[in-house]
Amino acid sequence: MISFRPMCDSEYPAYLDYFITDYATEISANYGLSGPQALAQAKQEIADDLPHGINTPGEVLLCILNQTPEAKSVVGYFWYRPDLASRSVFIKDFYIFAAHQRKGFGKQALYALETELAQTGFEQIKLRVAEDNKRAKHVYEVTGFRVTGVNMSKTIKSKC
């Protein structure tokens, strides 16, 4: 069974290690930045978005737990921002650890989050997923998400 708990201060450095590297890879692949440029941008964005780490007001960082009769273990992370006025949340990051992928935990976590949010009055979950992230897109589609727009970008090349 999947459940959630707030991320602890002691878990935040490991979260940053995963997130910054993963996000820098996405930035580099999707926006054509060099590895060092993408890494610098990822570090700057996380510093801007979470200036107080797990205690940043308006941001929710959760550990995804798998509970079995024998044990409870962390299998991934959720980071989302609730918007009380629109009764929606925007998922900023969702990750199932590599050792736990392809076991249904992603789908279970999304359904559990939806149930938990519905019980507290939220009506919509929003997110953004990179075009080349086929596995994530599949999980979102089979759990009922639909495309509501398309992000596009173009790199401007200097003529000099």
From TrEMBL:
Entry keyword Chloroplast: no
Boundaries of every N-acetyltransferase domain copy: 2-160
Protein's name according to its UniProt entry: GNAT family N-acetyltransferase
Keyword Transferase: yes
GO molecular function, one term: acyltransferase activity
Gene3D superfamilies: 3.40.630.30
EC numbers on record: 2.3.-.-
Keywords: Acyltransferase, Transferase
InterPro entries, sorted: Acyl_CoA_acyltransferase, GNAT_dom, N-acetyltransferase_domain
Entry-linked PROSITE patterns: GNAT (PS51186)
